[in-house]
Design goal:
Layout: H1 2-5, H2 9-20, H3 23-39, H4 42-48, H5 53-70, H6 73-103, E1 107-108, E2 113-118, E3 121-126, E4 135-138, E5 145-157, E6 160-169
Parallel strand pairs: 1-4
Antiparallel strand pairs: 2-3, 3-6, 4-5, 5-6
Helix pairs in contact: 2-6, 3-5, 3-6
C-alpha cells in the first residue's frame, strides 16, 4: 500500500512542498503550531464548550483553519499539501483497509449506467443494492476502479426503479485485487 501512495499526485505535491521549505518557513510553521496548541488545549476548549462534542470539534476545526489561513508562502503550501495527503491517507486506511480486513474484497457491480464523474467522485445508476460505507468495484471503462459508497437513493426511470449511487473513487485501490 505504501508503494501505491508514493505514486499519487497528493504525495508528489507534498514532497515538492516539503523540498521548497526554507528555514524561515520552518520557523513560521513552528510558531503557528505553538500558537495553535495553546488555542486548542483542553482548558480553552472546555471554556468555549464544556460538554457538546460537536461544538468542541467545530471549535478545534475553526482554530486549525485560522492557523492554516495565517500561514504564507511555501509554509502555507506545505501545510495545505499535508492536509490533502492526510485526507487521502485517512480515507484509505480508516475506511478501505478496515473493509478489506473485515470483508476481504469489494462487491463487483454490473450494469452500471448514467455515469457522472467529478474528480474523485462519481455517481451512477445500478439495479443492485449497495450500502453506504461499503466498497464497490465499478468495472465500467469510465471508472474501472474501487470506490467507497457515500450515498444511495432510489430513482424512477421509465417506470423502472433504479438505485443511484455516489462514490468516492479510490485511485489505485484496484491494483493487486483479483477482480
Amino acid at each position: 500500500m505504501a508503494e501505491a501512495f508514493i505514486h499519487e499526485e497528493e504525495w508528489r505535491q507534498f514532497e515538492g512542498a516539503q523540498a521548497a521549505l526554507t528555514a524561515s518557513d520552518i520557523d513560521q510553521l513552528r510558531r503557528v503550531n505553538t500558537s495553535l496548541r495553546h488555542e486548542v488545549r483542553s482548558e480553552a476548549v472546555d471554556q468555549f464548550e464544556p460538554g457538546n462534542l460537536i461544538r468542541r470539534l467545530e471549535f478545534r476545526h475553526d482554530k486549525l483553519e485560522g492557523a492554516l489561513d495565517s500561514l504564507t508562502g511555501d509554509a502555507a503550501n506545505y501545510a495545505r499539501s499535508f492536509d490533502v495527503l492526510n485526507d487521502l491517507l485517512q480515507t484509505t486506511l480508516e475506511t478501505s483497509l478496515d473493509y478489506f480486513v473485515e470483508f476481504d474484497r469489494p462487491s463487483v457491480l454490473s450494469a452500471v449506467d448514467q455515469i457522472d464523474l467529478d474528480g474523485d467522485h462519481a455517481e451512477f445508476s445500478v439495479n443492485e443494492v449497495v450500502h453506504v460505507g461499503g466498497l464497490v468495484y465499478v468495472p465500467d471503462a469510465a471508472i474501472d476502479e474501487v470506490g467507497i459508497v457515500e450515498s444511495t437513493s432510489l430513482t424512477m426511470d421509465h417506470g423502472e426503479t433504479r438505485i443511484r449511487v455516489g462514490i468516492k473513487v479510490l485511485r489505485g485501490a484496484r491494483e493487486g485485487l483479483d477482480l
